[in-house]
From TrEMBL, chains A, B:
Protein family: Belongs to the SIMIBI class G3E GTPase family. ArgK/MeaB subfamily.
Listed name of the protein: Methylmalonyl Co-A mutase-associated GTPase MeaB
Keyword Transmembrane helix: no
A molecular function (GO) term: GTP binding
EC number: 3.6.5.-
Length: 361, 361
C-alpha cells in the first residue's frame, strides 16, 4: 500500500487499488476492551499517597490527546488542586551546551539532601522537530534518575507551545498533590517557551557560560531581563578567571536594568556543575529569594497573578484557534496577506474584511 | 454657564439652572448641514500635493470615532498606501525628564537641514489619565513647531493602546504620501507602548540619562533590548564624565546581549540636546544603520513583517474585544476568577467553561 500511494503521489503510474477486504473477525462478537479506563478517584487517592507509579499514569492522561483521557485528567486535576501549591517552582533555562542536565542533576541532589521530593519537568514544544528532546535522555541526570525521591518527566512533545505549557502546568498540580515540594521546569532558552515558564514558576534561573562576545550570544533577547538569578557554569580550572570576568560583566549589566516586579535584585554567581563547586551558594541565593518574596507578599501575589494569567491565556489561545482553524478564514488570510504585502490594502482594512467573514458569516 | 458649572463642581452654591429655552428656529425648516463631510478624493489629492492643512484634516478623520469619518479615513488611507513607505521611521523613547522634547527638536532640525520633511507623531494611550500628553505642548519644540517642513501631531488620546497605535500607524501612511520622508514616533518609555512603536518603526532610539543605580532605573524592563541605539543626553559641563561612564556601562551591557534580528550591533553615544553637542554623530549612527539594513535586505523584510504583524494584531485584538465586551461573559469571568484564585477550579477548566458559554450559547 505504501508503495502504491507513493506511485500515486508522484503520478508515475495508475495502479488499481483493489476492493476493501471483508472483515476477518466476526463483527457480531463484541470486542473485549483491551484496557479499562483508569478511575479518577483511585488516581487521586494514589497521588495523594505519593505513589509515583500512579502519578506517572495520571501525567500520561494529562498528556494524552484522547478526549476520554482528558476528561479523567481534568477530574483528577480538579481534585488535586486543593492539595497543590506547596512547593518551590523553579524555572531553569540556558542555551544548549551550557550544561543544563549536569547542573539540574547536582542542583537536584543538593535540594534532596535537605529532605523533601523533587519533580523535574520540561517545556520544549520543538522537540519533535529538533529530535533533541530535553530530559528525554534521563541518563544524563545520573544521580537524579535513580533517586527514589525524584520524578523526572520529559516534555510532552506534541502540540503547540500553549498546549505543551498547559500540560506542564497541570503536571505541576499533580506533582504538588503527590508531595513534591520542589519543582524544576527546564527549557532550552532559545525559543518562545521562556515566557510560558516564567508564568508558571516562582524563581527563574538562567545558566550562562563564561566567555566574551559570541560565546554569550546564544541566548534569546529578553530572557536576561526575566532572570531572578544568573549562574555562570564551568567555573573550574583554567576557566575560573573567565567565569569571574563574565560574572562582573553580568553584574554591571544588571545594574542598568530596572528592579524586578518583586523588588528582588537579581544576583550573579559562578559554579561548576561538573566538579560540583559553588552549588550551596547558588541554593543560598534561591533561599534568600524565597525569604524575600515571602516577607513582602510577592510570592502569594505572583501565584494569584499566574493563575489568572493562565485562565486568560487559555481563553485567548482558544479564541485564536477557533478563528484560524476555519478553512474559509485560512483561504482569505492567505489572499489578504498578499494584498497587504503589496500595499494594495492596509493591514487594518484587511483584518476588518476577514473579521467580517468570521462574525457575519 | 461656565461659571455655574464651576460652582456646581466645587459645591459652593446651588444655582438654579433654569428651564431649557424653546428652539429659536422653526423646527419644520430643514436645518442646513453645518459642515459638508470631506470628500476622500479631494483629501487624497491635497495630501499627494503635500498640503499640510489637508493632511491635518485627514489625520483628524483617522482619529475620529465617528463611523462616517472612519469610512472616509479608510478610503483615504487605501488610496495613499501606494504612495507610502518612502521614509525613515524612527521610534524615540526615554523616561520623563530624559529631555525627549528638546532632543527631538534638535535631532529634527538636524534632519531638516539635509532637506526633506519631518513628521513627529506620538503614541501615548495614557495621556488622558496623566494629563501630561506628550507632544501636546508643541512649544516645547521651539524650532520644529515653527518650521515649514515639520508636521507635529500629538498622540491621539482616546482609546486602547491597540486603537491609538493603529491611528498612529495610519497617520504614518498619510504623512508619507504627503512627502514626509522622515517620521519620528515618540513614546514615554514607561508603559506598554514601546512594543507597538517597535512594530512600526525602522530604528528604535532610546534616550538615557547619565547616572548610576537608581537614576537609570526608570525605564521599563525589556526596552533596552529593543534599542538599535542608546544615546545618553546631558553630556555637557560637569556631567560629561558621568555620561561617558554610563556610555561605557551600556556598551559593556550590550555586549552581553545576543545580536539583533537585523544583525546590527546597537551603538551607545553621548550628546547634549540643550547645548546641541554630538547631534551629527547620533545621526551618522542612524545613517550607518540604514545603510546596513538596506544592504542586507533587512529593511524590506522588516517592513513586510510589520505589515503582516499589524494585520494579525488587529485580528487578535478584535477577537478579544468581541469576547470580553459580552456582558454575560464578563459576569462569568468575574465568578470564575474567584474560583481560580481560591483553587476551586483550574485555570484551564475555568477557561473552558467560559468558552463553552461563548461558543455554544
Amino acid at each position: 500500500m505504501e508503495h502504491i500511494e507513493n506511485d500515486e503521489q508522484f503520478g508515475g503510474l495508475t495502479v488499481n487499488k483493489g476492493v476493501n477486504q471483508p472483515p476477518v473477525v466476526n463483527p457480531y462478537l463484541r470486542p473485549r476492551r483491551r484496557r479499562v479506563l483508569p478511575n479518577a478517584g483511585e488516581l487521586v487517592e494514589g497521588i495523594l499517597k505519593g505513589d509515583i507509579t500512579t502519578l506517572a499514569r495520571a501525567v500520561t492522561l494529562v498528556e494524552s490527546l484522547s478526549p476520554e483521557h482528558q476528561a479523567i485528567a481534568q477530574e483528577v486535576i480538579e481534585k488535586c488542586l486543593p492539595h497543590s501549591g506547596n512547593s518551590r517552582r523553579i524555572g531553569i533555562t540556558g542555551v544548549p551546551g551550557a550544561g543544563k542536565s549536569t547542573s539540574i542533576d547536582v542542583f537536584g541532589l543538593h535540594v534532596l539532601k535537605r529532605g523533601g521530593k523533587l519533580a523535574v519537568l520540561a517545556i520544549d514544544p520543538s522537540s519533535e522537530r529538533t529530535k533533541g528532546s530535553i530530559l528525554g535522555d534521563k541518563t544524563r541526570m545520573e544521580k537524579l534518575s535513580v533517586h527514589p525521591d525524584a520524578f523526572i518527566r520529559p516534555s510532552p512533545s506534541a502540540g503547540s507551545l500553549g498546549g505543551v505549557a498547559r500540560k506542564t502546568r497541570e503536571t505541576i498540580v499533580l506533582c504538588e498533590a503527590a508531595g513534591f515540594n520542589n519543582i524544576f521546569v527546564e527549557t532550552v532558552g532559545v525559543g518562545q517557551s521562556e515566557t510560558a515558564v516564567h508564568s508558571m514558576v516562582d524563581f527563574f534561573l538562567l545558566i550562562q557560560l563564561a566567555g566574551t562576545g559570541d560565546e554569550l550570544q546564544g541566548i534569546k533577547r529578553g530572557i536576561m531581563e526575566m532572570a531572578d538569578g544568573i549562574v555562570i557554569n564551568k567555573a573550574d580550572g583554567d576557566n575560573i578567571q573567565r567565569a569571574q570576568l563574565a560574572q562582573a560583566q553580568f553584574r554591571s549589566a544588571l545594574h542598568l536594568f530596572p528592579p524586578t516586579a518583586s523588588g528582588w535584585r537579581p544576583e550573579v554567581l559562578t559554579y561548576s556543575g561538573y566538579f560540583e563547586l559553588g552549588i550551596p551558594e547558588v541554593w543560598d541565593m534561591i533561599d534568600r529569594y524565597f525569604e524575600f518574596v515571602d516577607a513582602n507578599g510577592y510570592f502569594e501575589r505572583k501565584r494569584s497573578e499566574q493563575a489568572r494569567y493562565w485562565m486568560y491565556e487559555t481563553i485567548d489561545e482558544q479564541l485564536r484557534a477557533h478563528f484560524y482553524h476555519n478553512p474559509e478564514i485560512e483561504r482569505m488570510l492567505a489572499e489578504k496577506e498578499i494584498s497587504v504585502l503589496n500595499n494594495q490594502q492596509s493591514s487594518f482594512t484587511a483584518a476588518r474584511d476577514i473579521l467580517d467573514l468570521y462574525f457575519k458569516g
